[in-house]
Amino acid sequence: MTHTTKLAAGAAFPAITVPRLGGGEIAPAATAGWRLLIVYRGKHCPLCKPYLGTLDKLLEEFEAAGVSVAAISADPEEKAAADHAEFGWRFPLGYGLTVAQMQALGLYISNPRSAQETDRPFAEPGLFLINPAGEVQLIDISNAPFARPDLAGIARGAKRIQEMNYPIRGTLV
Questions:
Q1: Confidence of residue 1 (pLDDT cuts 50, 70, 90)
Q2: Residue 158: how many CB atoms within 10 A of its CB?
Q3: What's the pLDDT score for residue 170?
Q4: Angle, CA of 94, 132 and 22, to the nearest 5°
Q5: What is the pLDDT of residue 32?
């Protein structure tokens, strides 16, 4: 049996940086305030598009809760740009996530089933809510595209966490 290391609830979010579509970079650990990072599988994933579309529709809800939002994948710039052009998402979109960065985040990683799918290993879905101290407040990772958290619930939860000063859960190991 193979074991992987998963990011612990309450841990400092790893200092990963990926290029941001349109210029600059996405560096969640170096960003201030509450932030939500979505890791998506990439352009080849038909389930990612509606999920990111829902994220885009809820952007104002996240902003009202004081949460900045970004999404990243292992896709190269041209694939991220094509998706952005097609769907017009308003949140920052990062690309070029490396296998080492996926491992640092504790994500499940898959190889493509064929060259038509994609040309590189990619991360399976992940969601990280990072608090102002840079700690991982909420984590959700999946090994397949079929299990993802409800984003409206995450938006409501992020607001409640702040209102109630709700502690980080799942820290007993």
A1: low
A2: 23
A3: 93
A4: 20
A5: 94
- Cα–Cα nearest to 138, from 153, 125, 128, 152: 128
CATH number of 105's domain: 3.40.30.10
Residue 19 is assigned to a structural domain of this protein: no
Helix 77-87, helix 48-57: angle, nearest 10: 60
**Spacing of C-alpha 133 from chain mean position:** 18
Domain that residue 115 falls in: 45-122+130-164
Spatial neighbors of 72 by CB under 8 A, at least 6 apart, are: 18, 26, 37, 38, 39, 40, 93, 94, 95, 97
Is 9 a domain residue? no
The domain tally of the chain equals 1
Q: Is residue 30 part of a domain?
A: no
